[in-house]
Amino acid sequence: MIEVRNLTKRYSSSTAVNALSFTAPDGAVTGFLGPNGSGKSTTMRMIVGLETPNEGEALIDGSAFRSLDQPARVVGALLTPEWIAPHMTGRGHLKMVADYAGVPESRADEALEAFGLAEAAKREVKNYSLGMRQRLGAASALIADPSNVILDEPVNGLDPQGVAWMRGRIREMAAEGRAVVVSSHLMSEMQLTADRLVVINRGRLAGEGPLEDFLGSNRVEATCSDPARLAEAVGGQVIGDSVVVDDATARDVGEAAQRSGVTVYSLQESRRSLEEVFLESTK
User: How does the average pLDDT of the chain come out, rounded?
Assistant: First the structure.
């Protein structure tokens, strides 16, 4: 489990993160969302000890990163693929990571196979595509089988097949009991991947909770012979020639129309997209 408690980071002329608190529980994918410059990257860097907070703390399984005896076994992170040395081969890089993590070098070949890079094992990283470097970074994060994982924009540079593959791997990580924190600017992908969301804006918490709570329930839009009467019957709102009803199903609206003697011409059931929710939360 990853816990962020009143985390604050100030620079000379600005506050990047302001009294931020949230929890990423075990066995779930926590989507970490926010506009550019909202403090996401700074927060993730503080969690893994790359930045020092001015106030507050970040705990991984109850301990600060810098106090962990074997940090690679507790948390794996993909923050940017640019940190990988371009003149190393994929296998050479993963062997180096395995040595640092204190795990057998044989894990390098296992990771190459698991992340679809076995055929590129002997190629220098500078010849990898961005998507391949993303896979290599994710393999590095998982090589010591950590109980917590932090991934910053893990699908960046991946083609549609690669995005679907990475989504599956992320879901597997959570299914195995890990706490997984994922940031992404692709709202549609996050909607398919995350169990929970943490939304920040201007360094502050804007919302936290299960994905379903953010999306809310169904919305039904109906066109009919008497919008005012139907709106009164179902507690909806007349917008133009339509009636819009939240927290209802098409069947609910259809049955209410029948009881009220209103003829329904069309019923359309929908839910808000995560992109709509995100834009509302970060105005």
Answer: 92
